[in-house]
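We now fix the convention by which a protein and its fold are recorded. These numbers are not coordinates but entries in a learned vocabulary of local backbone shapes. A record is reproduced here so that you can trace the correspondence yourselves:
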Amino acid sequence: MISSPFPTEATAADAQRVIAEEFAFFGDWSERYQYLIDLGKRLPPLPEEWKNESNRLLGCQSMVWIVPEGDAGKLDFHAISDSTIVSGLIYLALRVYSGRSAAEILATQPDYIADIGLAKHLSPTRSNGLASLLQFIQNTARQHLPA
């Protein structure tokens, strides 16, 4: 597997708090979109052999590939998109959820989306794609919990 830059903060709650602080620094949404693009560029490249239909996230207008690995104690997610803004959205989601336990993932609502005003500034297709990404992460965590 490839190395992951996540988690960058000790807990998912810490990650959400830091994301809100970072986005509060920018005065308008054009600056925030540019920051999202810059964050997306920080995602590690996904091996070409992982960019296949079985790893493709359905529900996104853009091409998004996501590969989970790990167990209930720690789940890592590797993902990327062919869209720069969507890659930034992926970066934020992985910053909150990747490298966490299944229990922490399931206990953490994506509050950062409302905290930074993201929901109001995404197109419907990007909102649907983000919802699909978050649902995939939650479902993966659920599948790894003991029965």
